Amino acid sequence: MRLQGEHAFEAPRQVVWEAVMDPEVIARVMPGCKALERVGENAYQGAMKIKVGPVQGEFKGAVTLSDLDPPSSYRLKLSGKGAPGFVEGEGTLTLSDAEDGGTKLIYDLEAKVGGRIAAVGQRLLDSSARVIARQSLEGLEAQIKARHDGGETAAAAAAPSEADFAGRFAKGLAAELIPPERRPLAGGVAVVVLLALAYLIFRSCG
Amino acid sequence: MGVIGSSIKRREDPALITGRGRYTDDLSLPGMLHAVIVRSPHAHARIVSIDAAAARAAEGVVAVYDGRDLVPGGEIKGVPTGWLLPDLKVPVHPLLAVDRVRYVGDGVAVVVAESRYAARDAADLVEVEYEPLPAVVDPAKATADGAPRIHDEAPENVAFDWQLGDREKTDAAFAAATKVARLKLRNNRLIPHAVEPRACLADYDPTSGELTLRMTSQNPHVHRLLMHLASMGLPEHKMRIIAPEVGGGFGSKIHHYPDEAITAWCAINLKRPVKWTATRSEANLTDAHGRDHATTAELALDDGGRILGLRVETYAAMGAYLSTFAASVPTYLYGTLLSGQYDIPAIHVHVYGVFTNTTPVDAYRGAGRPEATFVVERLMDAAAEVCGLDPAAIRRRNFVPPEKFPYPTQVALEYDSGNYEPALDKALELAGYDALREAQKAARDDPKKPLIGIGLSSYIEACGLAPSQVVGALGAQAGLWESAKIRVQPSGSVTVYTGSSAHGQGHHTTFAQIVADKLGIDPEQVEVVHGDTEKVQFGMGTYGSRSAAVGGSAIATATDKVVAKARKIAAHLLEAAEEDVVFDPAADGGPAFHVRGVPDKRQGWGDVVLQAYLAHNYPDDLEPGLEETSFYNPSNFVYPFGTHVAVVEIDRETGEVRLARYVAVDDCGNQINPMIVAGQVHGGIAQGVGQALWEQAVYDDSGQLVTGTLLDYAVPRAHNLPSFETDHTVTPCPHNPLGVKGIGEAGTIASPAAVVNAVVDALKPYGVNHLDMPITPEKVWRAIHLKGAL
């Protein structure tokens, strides 16, 4: 599975860099992330609760950063395992100056997923991963904004709730199912609501 | 019409369709524990460590064992393989993996707990550290240089390298040919999907040392023997295996898997009953899969479309270990069927059985014969195209003619009987073949209409497994006869004990019909008992469409023995010479013995039976009682055949294939119960159509099964299928007492080729000469809209 994407931040590169290097910030913005602690130089350990379709469970994992080039890029390697299976991934995170004075973040990860989560949730996996990524980045943006705008405390931007995740997941699905040119606003909203409901029911059954 | 030949409703159905059938998982015993098996999420990995401390400490957990616990003496008890080939590499298949896992689903530990839920939760707490190794899933790539080695015993990942036929003669035929049809075929990997997943309940009595194992089995005696010999080591007479109601098998419940032996081992060790039931996704990961061939096949022909030779090379996936009958499926059940219904003067087949990091592959409904039929019948269509002949015409031209029977093929079989053209004619007539071709032409010219395709499949199979001497010579580690015991109770009702173990086939009905017909009694007076090693004499079980042909023949033979003994008693009662006494099951006033030519001098069946037990007025030289056993060993396979016609409609814009009609004309010889025959044909066709259009077990490159649930693995549903149009011809089997042949697999054998031929036929205007199964709308759409960009 390949995870690629980018995100724009309205903050200078150094600020974004500090945020993405701060395990506390990351732990706060990743949905389901229960803890992330530094266990060595550029090495972190954490736990994350994941639900993909009917599969759920806790992953314990480790993240190692390498080839650090502050404030521009690093490589990361992650491995996690738990009852639902395992995840192993490797990739890069790159920051560059955007024209508007902000920062552009590009991530590119190649991940291997195995076990129950691969067998049962395969079709939902891509969308799920993308939603987690997007949600994390939006959370990160809020954190950075809060920091950048002065307040050192960023409690306002708490980790998203489960229902929030479900809604966003459904939105992600809808976005994939319906090509942009055929996405009428009202209809789109209805689809999102329906899918969100379906997803919540699905999850409660799992 | 007698009782044989009438469509009596299945006597087993009222209980089953009202939910009163008792399956293994419905059964419970006092003090019963539950086992859950921890399975590898990696396709290939070294086990670095297993830490079960947290699982052991969890509430309700009684024990956790890993592969090493199961081999305290150091000798790894493993799962055996039951069919050997020359130079077959048989790697050890431990009950639980030791040091290394070889497919996703390979068992690494078992958790036993007071409840199913506690066991399942605790299974998640078993910490296994793996060091992943590279995996290979494609049989065509597993033998390449640099492919990961799965077993040290098989350095090239080749389990066997097997050939049949005459290579030189075949090469000469190709050298002489003016036309050659050539295809590369993938026979897609399938998951059996019996409605009831595998389950077992083990109960050990430490006082007597007896183990009772209730399990989902197609062959309880074979399971007992294999477990005695290989995995359990208990004396055979101290093991009782019972198959309660079994909810389908399709082959997947023939084999000896580790799970039942692990559960039994836990019950013995803990001295408490233990139950294990697979979840559906666990079944998908661990039930032996079917098919998975990569084949190159060529047919040599002359200008007139006569076949000169056939050359086939196949890479057959074995999966990660050799399952019980894995080695026989792509060899003696496949290579031997490559002559099809045709008079082919030269054939050579070369099969590589290849290990891959996937679930083991073994017999699945049809077992080898669907793969063979697919090769032959796809080639016949390709040959028709090359020779410019109609598909029906080229088949007709090459059929083995009726006067050539018994017909020895170039691939080791002797077809006992057959008459192929009438079945083809009947199928074409039922389908309205000429009119269909007209409609096809008209539809092609009208872009608004769906494309129409017509596909034929003239199949043959060898079933009724099997003559014991023959299969013994070919490597089987068992004889394939069948047993029957007929016990006539003093009041005249009959109990039949059959070694053929039913799991949906209708034994309670058809077997009762055989006895009732022969004895002239009501089928309701006949009870059929099977599936219990304690009640029934050794028997070989149900698979390979053998129940009627072999099990039924054993029952017929044992019934004849009963009549022969009763005749002696009747002769004594009638004060006549035995040879002058005849039995008339259809006599007025009920079945009776009478003196030849003097119907009034008679003794009713009931009186004779009663006298067998009273023995008050009884011949001196005869033992009392009326109970006979027969072990029937067939002298040949049986060879059902037929022609199926599939008609498909293809939406040009979406590529969707609709199966519009399906015509099946089968010849299974005499039919004991035509309704049950039709039911078998229907189910078989549905499964074969499933393979052609929807089903496929897909592994990603790292060996993850990505179609692990029914969300992603599409089994056929009723609304996907038309009403089947079935008919038959009758060419009785000449060598068994009932003149019957098997029909349980025919539908699955014939239909994939019929459907694929129909789709390719529809797509001819687009230059398509083959599409691999399952033929999804995407493949068809690409074939139509992106010519050549497949």
Domain module tally of chain A: 2
**Radius of gyration of CA atoms of chain A, rounded to a whole number:** 17 Å
Strand ordering within the main sheet of chain B: 3-5-1-12-9-10-11
Rounded mean pLDDT score of chain B: 96
CATH topology group of the largest domain in chain A = Alpha-D-Glucose-1,6-Bisphosphate, Chain A, domain 4
**Helix fraction bin of chain B:** 25-40%
Query: What is the CATH architecture annotation of the largest domain in chain A?
Result: 2-Layer Sandwich
Strand residue percentage of chain A:
35-45%
Overall shape of chain B: globular
Largest sheet of chain B: 7 strands, mixed
Number of helices of chain A: 5
CATH architecture of the largest domain in chain B: 2-Layer Sandwich
N-C termini distance of chain A: 24 Å
Query: What sort of overall outline of chain A do the alpha carbons produce when their principal axes are compared?
Result: globular
- Amount of beta strand of chain B: 15-25%
Structural class of chain A: alpha+beta
Cα-atom Rg of chain B, whole angstroms?
A: 28 Å
Q: Round the mean pLDDT of chain A to the nearest integer and report it.
A: 74
CATH superfamily of the largest domain in chain B: Aldehyde oxidase/xanthine dehydrogenase, molybdopterin binding domain
Query: What's the quaternary structure here?
Result: heterodimer
Mind explaining what this structure looks like?
The complex is a heterodimer of chains A (206) and B (790). Chain A has two domains: 2-155, 2-Layer Sandwich (Alpha-D-Glucose-1,6-Bisphosphate, Chain A, domain 4), CATH 3.30.530.20; 161-206. Chain A is built from five helices and seven strands, in the order βααββββββααα. Chain A has helices spanning 13-20, 23-29, 116-148, 162-177, 185-205; strands at residues 2-9, 33-40, 43-52, 55-69, 73-82, 85-97, 103-114. The radius of gyration of chain A is 17 Å and the shape is globular. The model of chain A is unreliable at 153-157 and 176-206 (pLDDT under 50). With 790 residues, chain B is an alpha+beta fold. Chain B has three domains: 13-133 and 195-248 and 253-286, Aldehyde oxidase/xanthine dehydrogenase, a/b hammerhead (Aldehyde Oxidoreductase, domain 3), CATH 3.90.1170.50; 293-465 and 636-785, Aldehyde Oxidoreductase, domain 4 (2-Layer Sandwich); 481-632, Aldehyde Oxidoreductase, domain 4. Helices cover 27% and strands 23% of the residues of chain B. Chain B is built from 18 helices and 28 strands. A seven-stranded mixed β-sheet of chain B has the order 3-5-1-12-9-10-11. Chain B has a five-stranded mixed β-sheet with strand order 7-15-14-13-8. The termini of chain B are far apart. The chains are: A alpha+beta (206), B alpha+beta (790). Chain A binds chain B through residues 53, 57, 81-83, 85-86, 88, 112-116, 118-120, 122-123, and chain B through 41-43, 104, 123-124, 132, 281, 284-285, 700, 702, 704-709, 711-712.
